[in-house]
Amino acid sequence: MSNTLIITGILKTRTALHIGAGKGTTEFDALLRRTAAGEPFIPGSALAGALRALATRLAPRLGSKICALGPTPSKKPCGCMVCHLFGDVNPQEEDTEEKGGRASRLWVYDAVLKTANSTWVRDGVGIDRASGAAARQGAVKFDLEVLPAQAEFDLHIELEDASEQDQRLLAAVLAEWQAGRSAVGGRVARGLGAAALEELQVQAQDLNNAAALMSFLRDEPQAGLKTARKDHQEWLRGWLSAARQSVVPVSDAPNELDVTRSWLELEFTLQATGPLLVNDPTQAGRTGFDHA
Q1: pLDDT tens string for the chain (292 positions)?
Q2: What pTM was computed for the model?
């Protein structure tokens, strides 16, 4: 049996989002990933990868050595903070729990799109990495199917048998997502996939309790849930406060890794001095213009 924290919220995109399906059509070179019902969604693996990547940047500031940022990972089970929460970065068949191995304590479910959204076309140009010029071979010109900004997805995460260390690290990561410093999907370096976590809720489920266990088996999860603390935000504030108290100076960080000390946000007004076109082929086709 286990004690489980159930974390839910809404992941709202701030920029266009592309989660690739690995195939295209005559209309799009790269399609969005869709469910069997045809609705775009974000796979749990994509969300877990984004969570782990951010946790890897934050954990050294919380006093933990990180195997993924050090030398070649050992074949032995890793005991670093990130691997303890997300599972070993280099798992082996013989890494049983008795020997220190452990799968991820996080269950990250697929994020389902809350409302129907029309998709757009995003144009791109292939770049030769060596010269920095447009690529001369392959798909020099390509397009992507993307969801526009303000799309909302239901986020559902479950954390099993978590230690205080696990909850500190996860709270620090979720706080960054709440601040809008999250990115999922493809081409995030080009500005796609920026998102913010809203309406965070944290509830506890104790399957060691007979009544809660029966509710779970009867598929009545809400009957066996209780708020993790007085309110949903208190869990985050409490563990985030604990995480900040454990922050070490950069000079004292393990391996002297200088990562994620702070963020710099810039807000400015971009004023065009002449005509401006940000082309949207989808709207062009609907209105009859060659470019819109």
Answers
A1: 467 888 899 999 999 888 877 776 666 677 778 888 888 899 999 999 999 989 988 888 777 776 755 555 556 667 788 888 888 776 666 555 655 557 788 899 999 898 877 877 777 666 766 766 666 665 567 777 788 889 999 999 998 887 888 888 898 899 889 888 888 988 888 888 899 999 888 887 777 777 767 776 776 655 545 544 444 567 777 777 777 766 655 455 444 333 345 667 788 999 999 998 887 777 777 788 888 8
A2: 0.74
Q: Long-range CB contacts (< 8 A, 24+ apart) of 276-279?
A: 279/123
Give the residue carrying structure tokens 């995460």. 157
- The residue count of the chain comes to 292
Please give the C-alpha separations between residue 179 and each of 16, 100, 183, in angstroms, as whole numbers.
18, 35, 12
Provide the token pair at 261. 């000390």
Contacts of 137 (CB under 8 A, 6+ apart): none
- Beta carbons of 213 and 207 less than 8 angstroms apart: yes
